[in-house]
Amino acid sequence: MARLGSWIKAHPEGIYVTPADAWVDPSQPKAKALITHGHSDHARAGHGAVLATPETLAIMEVRCGPQNGQALAYDETIRVGEVDVRFVPAGHVLGSAQIVLEHKGERVVVSGDYKRRPDPTCPCFVPVPCDIFITEATFGLPVFRHPDTGSEIDRLLHRLHSDPSRCVLVGAYALGKAQRIITELRARGHHDPIYFHGAIERLNQLYESFGVELGELRHTGGATKVEMAGHIVIAPPSALNDRWSRRLPDPVTAMASGWMRIRQRARQQNVELPLIISDHADWDELTMTIRELEPTEVWITHGREEALKHWCTTHQIKACELNLVGYEDEDD
Ligand SMILES: [Zn+2]
Ligand SMILES: [Zn+2]
Q1: Which end of the chain is more exposed for a tag (fewer CB within 10 A), N or C?
Q2: Separation of alpha carbons 24 and 14, rounded Å
């Protein structure tokens, strides 16, 4: 009998599904690509044909230009070559999907990036039991335990209200994190206008077009320091230490990222208020998910693979590392 999953090949530039003649999240242009979500390290320009959720296709059109795309809604199944392909929610960002691949009685789930805690901007991760689980491991070390999101949002609001002459400038990735912070603030009862950097405007609009309510948003361009005092401003991380921020009223610099667990990272980026809010599974979520899915094998990609591999081995699950290249942290 053939080795389990022998029809899936891990190449440095992505996962190749042989009987479908298609690649998952390839880092190089390919004739046929199955895309888990719109972050730039997963969704690249230049593929011949793209299969993705309608939300991910819309994100790719905004970020990479027109696509030869086919939209597949969550839980619909399509036959690609000799493989049944289905997208199920990954809980990572709007439109994010795990890809469920079935061929000759074997089921392989490619997680893409995922998290288990609720996110107001996208449906929750759906566990799909499988033979092989190909998981991300961005935060695959026991030191990474993300705190409760609500308490991090409360720290942000507390800081904002403690000095109404200043603003709090929150660095957040343009796709996903920015909109999640806004919706988490709304869920905590913060209904004041939130100012945004122009770089996140189109994605805000796209989220709203898919029914994610962001409340009253204002562009920082044209707003005065007096108007922005006592308000939250959301900008991509690259803008935090940029001259752009000089237009803001004495900003308290905050950053929302799983990496804020590491104090040194916060210091390097001159972050005064580190917020540990991540769109990735932390250590407990990674191990809980593997326990729940009970796969025969776990293949680990993009991140700190070693500790999770060891954990699997001690739990009698066969595990290996896939050395894919080109996955960076656009989206932590
Ligand atoms: Zn990623
Ligand atoms: Zn991502």
Answers
A1: N
A2: 6
Q: Could you tell me the distance, in angstroms and rounded to a whole number, from the CA of residue 125 to the centre of ligand 1?
A: 16
How far is ligand 1, taken at its centre, from the CA of residue 171, in Å? 18
Would you say 59 and 47 are in contact if contact means Cβ atoms under 8 Å apart?
A: no
Nearest ligand to the C-alpha of residue 173? 2
Rounded CA-CA distance 277/187 in Å is 15
Q: Which own/partner contact pairs does 151-157 have at CB distance under 8 Å and 24+ positions apart?
A: 152/256, 152/275, 152/276, 152/277, 153/181, 153/184, 153/185, 153/187, 153/188, 153/275, 153/277, 154/188, 155/273, 155/275, 156/185, 156/232, 156/254, 156/273, 156/275, 157/185, 157/188, 157/190
Q: What is the DSSP letter of 122?
A: B
How many angstroms separate the alpha carbon of residue 302 from the centre of ligand 2? 11
Enter the tokens of residue 25.
Answer: 């999240």
Nearest ligand, CA 37: 2
Ligand 1 centroid–CA 175 distance in Å is 12
Ligand 1 centroid, distance to 112 Cα (angstroms): 7
Does residue 74 contact residue 89 with C-beta atoms inside 8 Å?
Answer: yes
Residue 300 is which amino acid? I
CA distance 301 to 119: 23
